[in-house]
Amino acid sequence: MTASEFNQCVDTYADGVFRFIRKNISDEDRARDVVQDSFEKMWIKHADISFEKAKSYLFTTAYHTMIDDIRKYSRQTELTEAAFNIHSHTSEYSGLKEILDEAVANLPEIQRNVILLRDYEGYSYQEIGEITGLNESQVKVYIYRARNFLKNYIGSLDKVI
Question: The pTM is what?
Answer without folding.
Answer: 0.55
